[in-house]
Design brief:
Blueprint lengths: L1 H31 L15 H13 L3 H11 L3 H57 L7 H6 L1
Length: 148
């Protein structure tokens, strides 16, 4: 019995010594580099095609369980779906609205220019009539052009 007790003590002392040795090695490693370096993960980015495909698949799901399974499978949140919907909805409408505004602006500009042109032509016609009545010519005749 005493022999077993001695063997047990020697095993315990070996374990303690081994543990102390391991603790010392770990503390040396930790003390060697005291700062913990943060691992920075880049934010995932998704292509437009992936977003549209995922939205189509999400909309094709009939139950909330299917939608949840899709989100878990893809590693997405419902906020991703909401923001993508908003992005595509506002993107299409704003593109159309911007084009519509541009077209409206161009149409109004064309109308203004047509009015100015008509006014300029009316002024030129009036000047021609006045010059004919007075016998003076604003523009030189071909005969006067040769003398200059």
């Amino acid at each position: 019995m005493e022999r077993e007790h001695n063997e047990l003590n020697s095993v315990i002392s070996c374990d303690v010594a081994t543990n102390e040795k391991n603790i010392i090695e770990v503390s040396e490693i930790v003390s060697h580099n005291p700062q913990v370096k943060a691992i920075t993960q880049r934010k995932r980015s998704f292509t437009t095609d992936y977003k549209q495909q995922t939205l189509a698949t999400y909309d094709a799901c009939e139950t909330t369980e299917e939608r949840g399974a899709l989100l878990r499978k893809e590693g997405l949140y419902s906020s991703n779906i909401s923001s993508w919907r908003h992005l595509f909805k506002s993107g299409n409408e704003s593109n159309g609205a911007k084009k519509s505004q541009r077209v409206d602006h161009l149409v109004s500009e064309i109308d203004q220019l047509k009015k100015k042109l008509a006014q300029a032509q009316a002024i030129i016609d009036l000047q021609k009539k006045v010059s004919e009545l007075l016998g003076t010519y604003i523009l030189p005749h071909e005969s006067n052009a040769g003398k200059s």
